[in-house]
Amino acid sequence: DVKVTQSSRYLVKRTGEKVFLECVQDMDHENMFWYRQDPGLGLRLIYFSYDVKMKEKGDIPEGYSVSREKKERFSLILESASTNQTSMYLCASRSLGGNTEAFFGQGTRLTVV
Amino acid sequence: GQNIDQPTEMTATEGAIVQINCTYQTSGFNGLFWYQQHAGEAPTFLSYNVLDGLEEKGRFSSFLSRSKGYSYLLLKELQMKDSASYLCAVRDHYGQNFVFGPGTRLSVLP
User: Fold this and answer.
1) Rounded to the nearest 10 degrees, how much is the dihedral formed by the CA atoms of A54, A59, A65, A67?
2) Over 80: is that where the pLDDT of A99 sits?
3) Is the dihedral of CA A80, A85, A91, A94 positive or negative?
4) Residue A48 and residue A55 in contact, taking contact as beta carbons nearer than 8 Å
5) Three-state DSSP class for A71?
6) Would you call A84 helix, strand, or coil by DSSP?
7) A37: buried, middle or exposed (CB in 10 Å: 19+, 13-18, 0-12)?
């Protein structure tokens, strides 16, 4: 059974803290994604990676960075957390094939106070 | 630019049929996906269309018209467990990224 695992379901952090969100997939997928989901806005792409050590900015990369040192792991980093980064964060992965769908992790609900 | 529209909320009765529409304007098109997301859970894949026409999968069907930039998800014989958000997503020209719509929250009433 395919699996995308995010390290935490719920996180509460203080403004200015450095925050790491970890995502691991066990399907040997090339592509990995980080989205944030906010009411009325849907899923918005923060960053994606199509290979180890490769990364591309999505639609809303400001305030975030990513790291992909190994194929199975894709980390999202909030360098200095702010209250407007309070959101649900979803990690996804997919293979390179033609009609393959993305598989999602269970999400991390981050609250920045 | 990228724009995907869906109704925000819909309500239907158990046992009925409901159609959730999705219109899109994207810089490229390489397939349209529908996902289901229950509250507090991850989105799960429902269906995929890349050619015009209807794809049927049990109680769920999805239709695509590329010339009109339009898709719909049809849910038949609604059950209470179908209460969820339904997300329409277009895969871009390069085939790597998904652009998601805002999602439609469906409530199924007894």
Assistant:
1) -30
2) no
3) negative
4) yes
5) coil
6) helix
7) buried
Residues of B in Cβ contact (< 8 Å) with A97: none
Number of CB atoms found within 10 A of residue B38's CB:
13
3-state helix/strand/coil string of A7-67: CCCEEEECCCCCEEEEEEECCCCCEEEEEEEECCCEEEEEEEECCCCCCEECCCCCCEEEE
Over residues A99-107, the mean pLDDT reads 88
Q: Do B48 and A99 touch (CB under 8 A)?
A: yes
Stretch A37-62: mean pLDDT? 91
Q: What is the pLDDT of residue A110?
A: 97
DSSP code per residue over B27-84 = S--S-EEEEEE-TTS--EEEEEE-SSEEEEETTEEEEEETTTTEEEEEE-S--GGG-E
Interface residues on B facing A, Cβ-Cβ cutoff 8 A: 4, 8, 31, 33, 40-45, 48, 50, 87, 89, 95-103
- The answer to whether A96 and A82 are in contact (CB under 8 A) is no
* Average pLDDT of span B8-27: 95
B77: left (phi over 0), alpha (psi -120 to 50) or beta: left
Looking at the predicted structure, is the pLDDT value of residue B24 above 90? yes
User: Quick one: pLDDT band at residue B67, thresholds 50, 70, 90?
Assistant: very high
Q: What is the pLDDT of residue B1?
A: 62
